[in-house]
Amino acid sequence: MSGMAGRADRASSPGNPERDAVVRHGGHREARGPDLVGVLGHQAAGSARRRASDVEHLRAEKPPTWGYCVSKVLVEKAASRFAQEHGISLVTLCPVVTVGAAPARRTRTSVPNCLSLLSGDEAEFAVLAAIEKSCSTMPLVHLDDVCGAELFVAEEPAAAGKYLCCSLNTTILELARFLAHKYPQYGVKTGLLSGELLEKPRVRLSSAKLVREGFEYKYKTLDGMYDDMIEYGKALGILPN
To answer: Which of 96, 103, 191, 208 fits a disulfide with 139 by CB distance 3.0 to 4.6 angstroms?
Structure first.
């Protein structure tokens, strides 16, 4: 195992103090799926739209939470401009919908969204459905892998530019089938599964750049991603004990 991969694995091990430090001290904030809407809509659109900037596309199309997305794009552009003007090496890591247990005692983002098929929370499920509709996929990554990737790009001298952090592309229907099979005691709330839902992802987000430079994801399947999140959901009161 290379030194780079070793760092990634070490950061993503359970109870790892490096991972906890990244979460507690602001190195990571849970990513809502709509963070990606601007980039995905921009890439999946026709060639004429691809020539427009992310901000122009978002303002014209107004996908769900488009104002939130615009703020993300503008902040990143401002940070990049500042880094160039002051000779700072800037690396951007863009995580997709982030799942898994965290040291945080409260959560308001992707964890309740991704547990909504079991909790029956319609408002949280509506966010999940909006992500799939806007992105044409349900892109997931485990929190430990996000923290591992942040440490990896911070320690890797050759790291530069933007990195997409995504280890799995799935859909709500695939997620529902998985949850129904593995956690029958909760019962998937099938009443939520209405409207236009995808059988298979139409878009697959790639972490090829991150992987090519030596990072290894630990969690690549729904089975691995949800193992600790069910217990986390119970601890937070999202799911019954």
So the answer is: 96
